[in-house]
């Protein structure tokens, strides 16, 4: 495991344990067995480390969402709903997402909300490509807009759930269908 991977694991452990708001960079470096300077060289700052951890988690979520999309027997809108449902179900049991959503002091919630562009846009782009691959008659620009809207709404349902996950997934599929019409 590289120093970068060890540092990301140390950050992951701090987030999951609830220590993230209080942990110092020196503590993370020590846990990873590297110098503090190595940590700063790799990530630039605490925020850079958090953003990189969020991106790593985002890649994992993208893989799962794409698998759910691919496994859905419906059209592109229904497949987007299936991907959103998978993401919501997975997030409900993911300790990093739970920490971010319930984080009051650690500065993680903005990575899902006000500073989410680096996390959400690649997911939306990949889902838009999957939509066009499923139905080549669809306009790629419109699919990009629909996918981004559904991804952003999925995050909204994640941060502030108002109904069961399966109902949210159905609503997101209906929204995608309306936007594609």
Which key phrases capture this entry?
single chain; 181 residues; mainly alpha; Arc Repressor Mutant, subunit A
Describe this structure in words.
This protein is mainly alpha-helical and 181 residues long. The chain folds into two domains: 1-44, Arc Repressor Mutant, subunit A; 52-180. It has helices at residues 3-17, 25-32, 36-43, 46-71, 76-92, 95-102, 117-134, 140-159, 165-180. The mean pLDDT is 94.
SSE blueprint:
Layout: H1 3-17, H2 25-32, H3 36-43, H4 46-71, H5 76-92, H6 95-102, H7 117-134, H8 140-159, H9 165-180
Helix pairs in contact: 1-2, 1-4, 2-3, 3-4, 4-5, 4-7, 5-7, 5-8, 5-9, 7-8, 8-9
Number of domains: 2
Helix fraction by DSSP (H/I, runs of at least 4): over 70%
* Largest pleated sheet: none
Care to count the β-strands? 0
**Total DSSP helices:** 9
Low-confidence runs = none
Give the termini distance in whole angstroms. 48 Å
Mean pLDDT across residues: 94
Query: What is the helix/strand order?
Result: HHHHHHHHH
Shape: elongated
Q: Radius of gyration from the CA trace?
A: 18 Å
Instruction: Please indicate the percent range of residues in DSSP E strands (runs of 2 or more).
Output: under 5%
Structural class: mainly alpha
